[in-house]
TrEMBL record:
Source species of the chain: Cryobacterium glucosi
Annotated TM spans: 21-43
Stretches assigned to the Cell envelope-related transcriptional attenuator domain: 111-268
Name of this protein: LytR family transcriptional regulator
Keyword rRNA-binding: no
Region called Disordered, residue ranges: 367-428
Amino acid sequence: MGAPIRHGRLQRRSPWQTVRVALVFSVSVLLVSGGTIAAVATWDVARSVKPGVHLAHLADTPGSTAALAVDVAAISGGVDLLLTGTDTRSGQGGAFATGAGLAGSSGAGNNDVTLLLHISKNHQNVSVISFPRDLMIPVPACPQSDGSTASASSRVMLNATLARGGLSCVVLTIEKLTGVQIPFAAQISFDGVTVMSNAIGGVTVCVASPIDDLYTNPPLHLAAGQQSIVGDMALSFLRSRHGVGDGSDLGRISNQQVFMAALARKVETGGVLGNPVMLYSLAKAATDNMVLSDTLTNPTTQVQIALALKDTGLANMVFLQYPAVADPQDVNRVIPQKEGAAVVNAALVADQPIQLSGAPGRAAVLDKSAPAAPNPTPTSLSTPVPGKTGPATTPTPVQAATPGPGGAVLPTTVTGQTAAQQTCSKGN
């Protein structure tokens, strides 16, 4: 793959790792069977939802925080939901409240994590795409909160789009890049990651070789083996770049995917779904610590999206990194790898199940002691539909993905893993 791509001193990272962000929202419906407890929990979570952010490409119809509807069913059709993690220190407290801490990033901050959750129209497959923070791409014109507009640009680093025009600008940018319309979005900060990790009781991850990173806060020191991480340590694990893989942001992405897959397995098989107290804590933590698009503030919508994930198997949940290569203009940046990106875009637009053929990534290895992961369950392909974008975006031309028995087989240049695959993080 050539020399490692390294990316400056920006050590901060605020990922909301759980691609099952909708699952977090699902607490309300999962508690409905709990009678009085469910009613109280649903009311409390619903009233915690803050006013939503309007996405500029959608019709001007603000969302609603109306009460949860009775007998809610899974949302009809597919779902595309963007999640950003901001690195802002503003309002985070602790070490981040110092002058030095705030100097790192304040205000809106940078979207140092950008994830796209795609649920297929038949609800049988989930793809979670991680976009490199240092990706240099065209950015469309972005409306500002004061009524002005930030001009379009042919070359902007992805993680600058949040400060450029808020959550809506990040959505518009990813729409332009992929050709997929994104009607739902959410944003989380450092505190949110810590609180969510505490709410689920931590996650056990496999560490292939020791991880040491003095650049995170708190510093990260993990010995090889199975490690349970929670709270601030989970945040440090997810932010770590210097301590994992080749020290690059692309290595950090695969390290985060190790965590996300382990989290998905815990949610699926570790008793989380059957624990009303934990589920309620997750929902409350999410609503208290996330900024949502106004299309997501209605608890009924949240539950409908959650129900779409109910029967998705771990083998059919794929985490992948958006294909990128070194930027010839700046070795500390990356640009889309055209062929691989076109295949990923085509699979998303056509709503095809995705099959990986590449390695887990720069900071991850398969856990040799774990049983072999099951293969994805073959499902009928959803009917391909044209990609849709908002008025301010132009979809990237896409080429057909290689069809396989269960969907689109991605080229080996696309790295990632399924939630069923047990992987280990490797130290730098």
